[in-house]
Write a structure and sequence with these properties.
By secondary structure, the protein is α/β, with parallel strands linked by helices. It has seven helices and six strands. Strands 3-2-1-4-5-6 form a six-stranded mixed β-sheet, with helices on both faces. A hairpin with a 5-residue loop joins strand 5 and strand 6. It is globular. The termini are far apart. The relative contact order is 0.17.
């Protein structure tokens, strides 16, 4: 009789690049190269990326970034994020080197004009989750993304030393199902 071989699901890590960059930038202060160019976000980003690769051994990794410019939300509501401070220039100057380094790792970068990195993360993760073939880990510190948690999607929280939110952890920590996160935050 033929043997049935069960294989474990592949692990996909989808990293919110902007969240990762901010985390790295503010975690390490005043690091620069011999020319005085800031490198703290670059160093921190790569250190955190390597830590995830070594500890979690993902089968696939992708990173999303926000593009400069308005999103569809700005067309709906002109004052969307109007009080948010712009990204510090020292961090902006490190984005392209980070993206270049990601290309050396052969890590795909996804960006879409008119959409935030979170929107791209949501689209990719929901499409992958529908096939029920992979375990998806969204790497971010953004609580809004917890609304996506389901049987195939988890959130790997960068602010809490790799705390992984699954359905039960969301319910325990927030008192609502993942689908209730938007109401809770609102």
């Amino acid at each position: 009789s033929p043997r049935i071989r069960f294989m474990s699901k592949k692990k996909v890590f989808l990293i919110d690049g902007n969240s990762f960059c901010y985390r790295a930038y503010f975690a390490i202060k005043e690091l620069s190269n011999s020319k005085g160019q800031p490198t703290n976000a670059i160093y921190g980003f790569i250190t955190m990326l390597n830590r995830i690769i070594e500890a979690e051994k993902p089968d696939y990794i992708a990173v999303t970034f926000d593009l400069k410019g308005p999103t569809f939300r700005h067309r709906i509501y002109e004052e969307y994020k109007i009080n948010r401070k712009p990204m510090p220039d020292e961090l902006v100057s490190q984005l392209e080197p980070i993206k270049k380094i990601l290309s050396y790792y052969n890590i795909m970068i996804f960006e879409k004009e008119g959409f935030e990195a979170d929107d791209v993360l949501a689209t990719i993760s929901k499409r992958l989750s529908a096939g029920n073939l992979v375990d998806i880990y969204i790497v971010t510190g953004d609580k809004d993304i917890l609304q996506l948690v389901d049987n195939n999607i988890r959130v790997y929280n960068t602010h809490k030393d790799g705390l992984i939110y699954d359905i039960e952890t969301v319910k325990r920590d927030f008192g609502v199902e993942p689908t209730g996160i938007t109401d809770l935050i609102a």
